[in-house]
Design a protein that fits this description.
This protein is mainly α and 126 residues long. It contains four helices and no strands. It has one domain: Hemerythrin-like (Four Helix Bundle (Hemerythrin (Met), subunit A), Up-down Bundle), CATH 1.20.120.50. The longest helix has 37 residues. The chain is elongated and about 50 Å long. The structure holds fe (ii) ion (FE2) (2 copies). The site of one fe (ii) ion has 5 residues, from helix 1 and helix 2.
Length: 126
Amino acid sequence: MNEALTLGVAEMDAIHAEFLTLLEDAKHSRGNDFLSAFEALLAHTETHFAREEALMRAHRYYGLQEHESEHETLLSEMRYFFEKAKKLPPMGRSYIDDYAFEKFHRHVINIDSQLAMFLKSEFARA
Ligand SMILES: [Fe+2]
Ligand SMILES: [Fe+2]
């Protein structure tokens, strides 16, 4: 994964690296494989967000609400394009090829980075 995206919290970094791998798989998939690759990315994102939300709850993170609502927005959008992709594959393709990375990147830089900073200070105090 791009160094700039590394947050220094092993669990989050591992999940983000998996996301990027699945996104690459989806970008390179063709025909019927595209929908299953998109579905795998969606399932991974559900787990990814649930895992971060569990971490936030466990550590009583101050930014939980804002972070959760960002997750909900990203996930609803991804689900919307996945449903579209079933009937109109080019719409799903354009989301995967042109938007998904940018959306993810912005979330990691702006939102996940704050959580990572908080968790690192929590871990240092433990
Ligand atoms: Fe994340
Ligand atoms: Fe997040």
